[in-house]
Every structure is written in C-alpha cells, then in structure tokens.
User: Fold these one by one.
Assistant:
Number 1:
Amino acid sequence: MRTESVSAPKHLGIRSHELFSRARNVFPDGTTRATVERDPVPRYVMKGEGAYLTDVDGQRFLDLHNNFTTLIHGHGFGPVIEAVARQLHDGTCFANPTAHEIDLAELLVSRIPAIEQIRFVNTGTEAVMFAIKAARAFTGRPAIAKIEGAYHGAYDWAEAGQVGTPATWGLASAPTALPSYTGTPKTVADDVIILRFNDARGAREQIVAAGRRLACIVLDPMPSRIGLIAPEADFIEAVVTTARQYGILVVSDEVLNLRQGYGGASVRYGIQPDLLVAGKIIGGGFPIGAVGGSRDVMEVFDGSSGAAKVQQAGTFSANPVSMVAGRVSMEHMTEAAFERLERMGDWVRGELTAAIEMRQAPYVVTGAASLFRIHPKRRMPCDYREAYTQPGEAASIRAMSRFFASEGIIFPAAGTACLSTAMSEGDLKKVVQVFDRYLAVASTL
Ligand SMILES: Cc1ncc(COP(=O)(O)O)c(C=O)c1O
C-alpha cells in the first residue's frame, strides 16, 4: 500500500500561510514550541467551541488533539468559563495563598490514593523536575531510571533516552541515556538508567545493577511517545517490587494518563507509587502541574521548621485562575463522566480495529480510556523500538492526518488522539467513517 501521494490538505488556508510568514521573522522555525504540527505550515486557530475548533480561514474541525490531551471537556467549557470570568475580576495572581488551591488539592487527594499531600506548579515539566528532586532529597541519591523513549518534559535528566533512533539507542540490554540536546552535561547520562518498556527481566537486572544509586524510577504507565502501548503486568510488578527492595521511589508520571480514570492511571494498572505527577486535565485548560505523594516523602517540601530540603516556589504556582478552572473541570469529571469517556474510547478503538481487519490494512490501534493511536504497522508494538516510526511509516501517518484534515478532523499526525466529553455519537461515527474512507483510498494508491 503506497500512501505518500495523498494530496495536500484542502483546508490549510491563506491566512495560516500569511501568519506563518510573519511568525518566521520573530520565532526560530516560526513557532514557539517544538511540538506544533505543520504541513507545510501550522494551522492557526481563531477559536474553539466544544468538540470543534475554527481556524483563521473560518474552517471548522473536530478536534482530536485537545491541546495534547489537556481539554477533557473540549473547548470553552461553560462552567469553567463562568468560574474563571468571576476569578478574573477577583484577581489573577497574588503572593498570598487562596482558598482555591486548597479546594483543588482536597479534590485530588480525595480521588487519587497515592496522594496524601500535594504541591502545585505551572507545567508537567516542572512537576516531574520537583518529583525527581524530592526523590533525591528523600533518598540522598543522585540517579534516576526511566523508560526508553518516554516523554516527561524538559528537565535534563527526565529528557535523557527520549530521542533514540536505531543508530543511537544502543544495546537492548542497556539502552543509551542519550541527551536530548548537544551540550547536555555528561554527568546527566551518568545518572540516568534507561529501562525498556515491558521488558520485565531486563528492567529487574538493570535496577539491581544500579541498586542504591537510584533515587527513583519515573514510570508513565502508558507512555504516549512509545505509542500508548498497554503495560504488561509482569513488567509493572518487576519495576515496583525491585524498586522497593532497594529503597528506590516509584514516581508515576500521569501528566497525560491521569485521564485514564477517576483515580488516575496508577489505580487502573495496580501501581502504588510513592510520588505521582499530574498536569494537563487538572488545570481545566490553564497552565498547571502538580506533584503529590505520601506525607513522609512530601515532607521534603516542608519548610515550616527551617529551610525545606527541596525549595519549590514559582511566581505563578497555584495561581487562582488555574486552581478554579481545574477544580470546576475536575468536579465535572465524575465517575460517570469517566465511564462514559471509557465507553466512547472502547467503541472508537473497536470500530477502527474492525475497519482495519475488514480491509486487511497494515495498521494497529493502541490506547485506553479516552486515548487512542493508530500505528501504520501490521504487528502490535510492545516497546519503544517496536513502536518507532520508520521513514516509510512517517509518510503514511502524514497522509492519514492530511486525509482527516481534508474531511474536517484534526488528527494529531505523530501523536495521541483523544476524546472529550463535548463529543457526540455523531462525532465518533465520523472519525470511524473518515478512517475507513482513508483506508479505501490508501489501498488504491
Ligand atoms: C507524561 C508527560 N510528562 C510530562 C509532560 C510535560 O508537561 P508540560 O508540557 O505541561 O510541561 C508531558 C507533556 O506532554 C507528558 O505527556
């Protein structure tokens, strides 16, 4: 099946081109974040409304991106808009605490078993960084372990081993802790051990070898950059049990996967982490990150009797706008709302898979709850190396994303698609129908 020649998107209009030519003068590569998709230029957005967004050329799209899975209620969720509008009048940031931060903290503590106490920051990157610092301060050890290919934001140690290619990722038994940018201090790689996802034996051996040098293992239960592959129970068991034997903390990074359920992803996969990192959905569409955990570990942030072991501050940390938006958004994510999203996700993944099987097309679908991903592969991948997008596959993904755009759907070209509570049955059917049409078109090329 050849897919490279599916035509360029019909819907990338003149205004996006005009804005991009201005942007290129003021931003390196024309964008302000590396993850902005472009084909050949980014689509500039004018507004979002529920499950849809409208671009600057006035064209409407069903949004399966939802700002990297953040907008669990879609765009412009009424209750959040009202609460935030009130808060704007009352003040957007203070040097003093507000009741709003306690409200959001209480909500999260009551739902997520791993969190007894919590601290808020502004991004997932910061939250991962503070979780790692907390683990180091708690254990007195410098090194961390993490999963090959997994994304945890931009803290140097969390980034290592994230961008490996077949030429650079090294031995399967000891993957390279590749720095993500030139000039990273060499000591970073010295203090990062890379484990392969779903390789229980390999992970156990590496953790044992590093032993008491490790402060923590940072584990995203279903890493999106690896391809939203389900974690195998024996892998989780091996990582957590071996960590316990050596006094190594387990950090569950649920910045993206908290979306997988009322209590988050660790509950779903039976992990009892010492620290849990959250972000995205808990901010209701505003910047946020959070690190929480057991009282004894969180004590490293306690500065009430002298300097805290880990100083965590931040000019905008726990700003009342993010706190209010997050609380209202999460209040509407009741258990029933999570169950509905789960059913929607199951239906979409099932129908996409049925379309693939019917046409015997070379694709597989991964994901859980409201998250899904379509891989242009015949076999279900089980780790980063298997999920790695080969050059021919990249063309296929781009072609599929273009086809979706031409049919009025934003489908993340290289990433994770997600559903929102704003989506209707009709929206979901449209996703499946467009995919099926794409398979039909692609098979004739
Ligand atoms: C698992 C995970 N951790 C950390 C981050 C970083 O979060 P942020 O982009 O808010 O810094 C992300 C972002 O996508 C993520 O998916």
Number 2:
Amino acid sequence: MTLQFDDEAALAMERMYQTPDVVGQRARFHQALALRHGESVLDVGVGPGLLAREMADCVGETGRVAGIDQSADMLAMSEKRCDGLAQTDFSKADASELPYPDENFDAVVSTQVYEYVPDIDKALSEAARVLRRGGRIQILDTAWDSVVWNTADPSRMHRVMTAWDEHLHDPNLPTTLGSRLREAGFSVSHCEVIPIINASFHSNCYSHGISAAIRNFVNGRQGINQEEASAWRNEFKEQEERGQYFFSLNRYLFAGIKL
Ligand SMILES: C[S@@+](CC[C@H](N)C(=O)[O-])C[C@H]1O[C@@H](n2cnc3c(N)ncnc32)[C@H](O)[C@@H]1O
C-alpha cells in the first residue's frame, strides 16, 4: 500500500512544507508561474493548501483558485487555510477524473502529486482537457533516485530507500514527465532542477521531517523491522553531533503550454 494521506500524515506534511527548504521551493514555483490578477488556476492534489493560499493572493478577488484532493483530511486543511477567501473552492476528486468542464482554467499546477497517481497519462490528459488552449501547466516532482545521504552503512541505506520507493507509484517520474506532457498535448516550455540540500540535521529542515516519515513507512518492508528503521534514522543524529551530516535531493519543475 502506498502512503496514506490521513490526518496524522497531513499534519506532518504541513510542518515539513513550512520549513525554509520547501518555502524556498514554493517561492521559485510562484516566480516561474507568474500568475496574474484575475486568472483562474486549478491545484491538482492541493494537500495542506499552502500553495493555494499564496495563489489566492496572486489572482485576487476577481480570479479563482480551485483545488482538488482525494484526501478529506488534506482538503479540510486547505479549506481552513483559505477560509473567507471567495476566490477559492475545493472539491474531493481524483486527479484522473477532474470535476470541471473543458477549457475551464488559465493554468493547472501540481506539486508532488502525479507520482502518486496510478494512471499518470490519464491524469495529464485530464489536466489538458480542463485547460484553455494556450493555458499553462506547471508541475513539480521529486526524483527519489537523486537522493545523496551520508551513511556508514550503504547496504542498509539502499534497503531503506528501496522500501521507501513503495510509498508512491513512480519514484522517478521526472525522467519521463517531459515526454508524457508532450503525449498529453502540451509543448514543454521550461524544465529546471530545484535541489534541497541540508548540511545539518536540525528540526526545521526538510530531511529531518522526511526521515521520520521514511522510518515509519519502511517498518515491515524489505525485511526492515522497527529497530533497524530507528537505527537508520539515529545515524543522522550521531552524524549531526560529529558535524558529518549531509542530505540532498532533486526536484524538477516542468512548465508547458496546451497546444
Ligand atoms: C505529497 S502531497 C503534496 C500536497 C501539495 N500539492 C503540496 O505540495 O503541498 C500529495 C497530495 O496528493 C494527493 N493525491 C495523491 N494521489 C491523488 C490522486 N490520485 N488524486 C487526487 N489527489 C491525490 C494526496 O492526498 C496529497 O494531498
């Protein structure tokens, strides 16, 4: 079973997505998207609603920010965060079956969602359907093969990360995303890498939060038990004391235009 976005996961994700690492990533995402006042935008897999809340300010009261998510707990967070903003609306729906008419939005965005969707090509064709001609799509996804994590036990690290790959459908979606976007009817106008680098294991960095999620998820997979999963994460605390901690991962931003 892949990662479940229930209430507990939603709270942990909300914390992680407010670390400076992810705040910086969102800032770059906004800059590339350059939303204008009055535009309508759909956020596919809106999650805790941090991006949606910021986009609501960009489009203003004459614009629209719609968000869909399959998790009721995530949607509740988005609704609370955007409470009182008439330009926002949220619906429980699957990325592969969007509850909107054709050519309804100026932009469709999605950050760290399509890798969880079983039929990614269907989801991208749905995004194309609801976008107006000339409208833009912007997607950010992680390549989990890009992780560089210092360890004295590479074999354990390999098993843990192999088990973690089971938390989603496609752990390396960016490698095929450009061709999939073209197949779905987009031209790809821009692609860039957004790295996260942590040289210290402190509680307000991305890898502190994600390593806790990984430790919890891998327990019982690939022959890993709770003790080993905890030992894997405890190594980072020991490294931090010795000044040896290092983590990095790459996220990829793709922008496209509906032809
Ligand atoms: C890693 S979170 C990212 C949340 C948000 N986009 C962000 O970057 O803050 C993934 C989100 O995608 C949602 N999700 C996963 N698969 C989905 C699907 N098939 N349809 C709709 N939402 C989905 C999850 O419920 C979760 O809220």
